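ZP: hey, is the adenosine-5'-tetraphosphate complex queued? I don't see it on the tracker
AM: it wasn't, my bad. submitting now with these inputs:
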Amino acid sequence: MKKRSFSGIQPTGDIHIGNYLAAIKQWVASQAEYDNIFCIVDLHAITIPQDPKILKAKIREVSGLLFAAGIDPKLSAVFVQSQVGAHAELAWILNCFIPMGWMQRMTQFKEKSKELKEQVSVGLFDYPALMSADILLYDTEVVPVGEDQKQHVELSRDLAQRFNSIYGPTFHLPKAVIPEVGARIMGLDDPTKKMSKSEDNPGHAINLLDSPDEIRAKIKRATTDSRREIRFDEKRPGIHNLLVIYEIFSGLSRAEIEASYQGKGYAQLKKDLGEVVVEGLKPLQSRYQELTAEAGHIDSLLAEAAARVRPLAEKTLARVKSRVGLG
Ligand code: AQP
């Protein structure tokens, strides 16, 4: 029996290379090893205001990008969270077992609520409870994510342990799997902040559907420093971030990259990086165009996957309800 792997992605904004390098690429690579379930988390998306038409379109776009990146619907289930009612139902039950103090420690909520202040939704605060439901419904053992989601996965694990200690073995204990390289891709405009879909600055992120010229221009404008030497050094976040992106897209080792840039300047690195990223995204972009040309194809793949995972989720939910004494 293969281990169950579960992960999610929000259908919001434009999917960028941070999402791709840390999460989607891992998901594609792990398909032979794990029994994979990937969720388009639209219920999470509405924790901040969304335009209904755009949200619907983004669900298809994100799903299409996952298939275009190499997720094989025969090997992995890709489904939409709101199509499986057990997610919201389990989240409510779990809410009743999560101490407020655990939730108040979540750094993502602290950061995101800074801007929204009093307008912040209860749903955004509750984001980790819904994410715990997503993970625990499928007897998940591994959760491949970027570093920013580590704290949420740890909360899911603590919660599973807490529930099991009250009611006896009910949930598997999930573990975050974070890539060694590229776990936190930083913004091109500000390399001290993680690359994020919700940043408005057009030079912030390289999106998977950006044109070659957009990619080249964004990299050319990326913030670096006034030094010259090209070396992996976390204390120089701008150049370090570009080098990490180069490392993953090129497949070269750090020593090879440093050696090839001896005596060369940042302009050359940026030019080469532009080409490496353009070439790296080309197959995904053309596959995406093919997939989306077939009307209804993506929707039917999503519906099939939801039908496949729904019984698994309902089984876990029934177990939980019976433990708690509900229904
Ligand atoms: N900058 C990043 N570097 C590495 N991994 C990242 N992830 C997100 N940003 C980076 C990982 O991508 C997966 C899907 O992300 P998501 O859309 O569900 O969550 P998110 O963290 O909310 O995405 P963004 O891009 O930061 O959007 P905003 O800020 O708008 O919410 C996850 O595995 C995540 O770790």
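AM: back. The two ends are 32 Å apart (CA to CA).
ZP: great, adding it to the tracker
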